[in-house]
TrEMBL record:
<keyword id="KW-0560">Oxidoreductase</keyword>
<dbReference type="InterPro" id="IPR036119">
    <property type="entry name" value="NOS_N_sf"/>
</dbReference>
<keyword id="KW-0408">Iron</keyword>
<dbReference type="InterPro" id="IPR044944">
    <property type="entry name" value="NOS_dom_3"/>
</dbReference>
<feature type="region of interest" description="Disordered">
    <location>
        <begin position="1"/>
        <end position="41"/>
    </location>
</feature>
<dbReference type="InterPro" id="IPR044940">
    <property type="entry name" value="NOS_dom_2"/>
</dbReference>
<keyword id="KW-0479">Metal-binding</keyword>
<feature type="domain" description="Nitric oxide synthase (NOS)">
    <location>
        <begin position="104"/>
        <end position="111"/>
    </location>
</feature>
<dbReference type="InterPro" id="IPR044943">
    <property type="entry name" value="NOS_dom_1"/>
</dbReference>
<protein>
    <recommendedName>
        <fullName>Nitric oxide synthase oxygenase</fullName>
        <ecNumber>1.14.14.47</ecNumber>
    </recommendedName>
</protein>
<comment type="subunit">
    <text>Homodimer.</text>
</comment>
<comment type="similarity">
    <text>Belongs to the NOS family. Bacterial NOS oxygenase subfamily.</text>
</comment>
<feature type="compositionally biased region" description="Low complexity">
    <location>
        <begin position="16"/>
        <end position="28"/>
    </location>
</feature>
<dbReference type="InterPro" id="IPR050607">
    <property type="entry name" value="NOS"/>
</dbReference>
<dbReference type="InterPro" id="IPR017142">
    <property type="entry name" value="Nitric_oxide_synthase_Oase-su"/>
</dbReference>
<dbReference type="Pfam" id="PF02898">
    <property type="entry name" value="NO_synthase"/>
</dbReference>
<comment type="function">
    <text>Catalyzes the production of nitric oxide.</text>
</comment>
Length: 415
């Protein structure tokens, strides 16, 4: 069985996130000027969707009390206001189930431990920025990473929630210069936009400059236009990369940030859509080593590593790329371990994932899985997740979704 054709050209290996084909993240060559703000899911909540969610919540949480009064109250609230307000417990459960249903995430065994920061009252861009920074600090915990989600105001009949333009809260800038990119080519469009909006890169510019947050407010702040907020350096934990056996590896001057925080997927629960709901887990080494630092359209480091290893790079058949990718992965694991930063490896995480699948089956639930995302980008067949089929991804129930507008914004194309 082969993964789909885009599997080798898209981002990420293990995250709770879609690997978006690079071509779709960049604005089209003929990108028109800023499009007018298009309302997304502003319409009234579908009562049937709300009821289905409330029933699921009560079925899985028998201690929450009788379901019928809650269903009646929700239906009444929707009839009166066009929407309803989740209880704190419903929101927490909905976010956890959205993680549990993320077909592309290998780390779902611990879905019940997702920590909720309920910030549904927040719409103002300065406050959104401060809460995003608060998320980084609370989730990082000096390296003892905690899976965390911050939920901002929803879209609703009476107004929009805020938007976070960044695809992740922490990403490195990519500066276009002379047909090349300094830094991460993936963020070149977004970096252009941040600069157009007034961001000044550090001087001199480097390969690992943390991008600012770009945020649009919700509610009465919708009209204000996007704002740029620098992230304080002490909120971003980074790990310089060294190799357990090769001293020269440190001279490559590579690093990566500890926390992957997906910030442009909307969280849909029971008919309510939260457009800004950044969430994080912790990294699996191959995401950094075999994709971010290795992909030809990212940091493209394999040739440099192979040469430093003294490998013969004259032909693919010497397997220099494969060997370099393995050593890069060893370096990432070693460096994160030394720094005391949570990081999974693809062998352990694959085993844990199959335990998750078994538990879901034992609970009588479908377990949606996207094979091409779950199988790690190196040594696929050496992990047990490779050797079987799974339930197809579904599109119902609480879910994280990536809409086209969010993709365009993260690619630097304002919508
Ligand atoms: N693959 C993405 C990246 O390299 C991160 C996706 C989320 N990953 C995770 N382990 N939760 O930045």
């Amino acid at each position: 069985m082969a993964p789909p054709p885009d599997a080798g050209t898209v981002d990420a290996g293990s995250g709770a996130l879609p690997r978006v084909p690079a071509a779709r993240t960049a604005p089209p060559a003929s990108a028109p000027g800023p499009a007018p703000v298009t309302p997304t899911r502003h319409v009234a909540v579908d009562p049937a969707e709300a009821e289905e969610f409330v029933r699921l919540f009560h079925t899985e949480n028998p201690g929450a009390g009788p379901v019928e009064p809650r269903v009646a109250a929700v239906r009444e609230e929707i009839a009166r206001t066009g929407t309803y307000v989740h209880t704190g417990a419903e929101l927490e459960f909905g976010a956890r189930v959205a993680w549990r249903s993320s077909a592309r995430c290998i780390g779902r065994l611990y879905w019940r431990s997702l920590h909720l920061r309920d910030r549904r009252h927040v719409t103002e861009p300065d406050e959104v920025a401060a809460e995003c920074v608060g998320h980084l600090r609370e989730a990082t915990r000096k390296g003892r990473i905690r899976s965390t989600i911050t939920v901002f105001a929803p879209d609703g009949p009476s107004g929009r929630g805020p938007r976070i333009w960044n695809e992740q809260l922490i990403r490195y800038a990519g500066y276009r210069a002379g047909g090349r990119v300094l830094g991460d080519p993936r963020t070149a469009g977004f970096t252009d936009t941040a600069r157009t909006l007034g961001w000044t890169p550090p001087s001199p510019m480097g390969r690992f400059d943390v991008l600012p947050l770009v945020l649009s407010g919700g509610g009465e702040h919708v009209k204000d236009g996007p704002q740029v907020h620098e992230i304080p350096a002490d909120a971003v934990l980074e790990v310089p990369l060294t190799h357990p056996d090769h001293a020269w590896f440190a001279d490559l001057d590579l690093r990566w940030h500890a926390l992957p925080v997906i910030s442009n997927m909307r969280l849909d629960i029971g008919g309510i859509s939260y457009p800004a709901a950044p969430f994080n887990g912790w990294y699996m080494a191959t995401e950094i080593a075999a994709r971010n630092l290795a992909d030809a359209d990212r940091y493209d480091m394999l040739a440099e590593v192979a040469e430093a290893m003294g490998l013969d790079t004259s032909s693919d058949r010497t397997l220099w790329r494969d060997r370099a990718a393995v050593e890069l992965t060893a370096a990432v694991q070693h460096s994160f371990d030394e720094a005391g930063v949570s990081l999974a490896d693809h062998h352990g995480e694959s085993r844990r994932f199959l335990r998750f699948v078994e538990k879901e089956e034992a609970a009588g639930r479908k377990c949606p899985v996207d094979w091409s995302w779950i199988v790690p980008p190196i040594s696929g067949g050496l992990t047990p997740v490779f050797h079987r089929y799974y339930d197809e991804p579904t599109d119902t129930g609480p879910m994280f979704r990536l809409d086209d507008q969010a993709v365009a914004r993260a690619g630097g194309c304002p919508v």
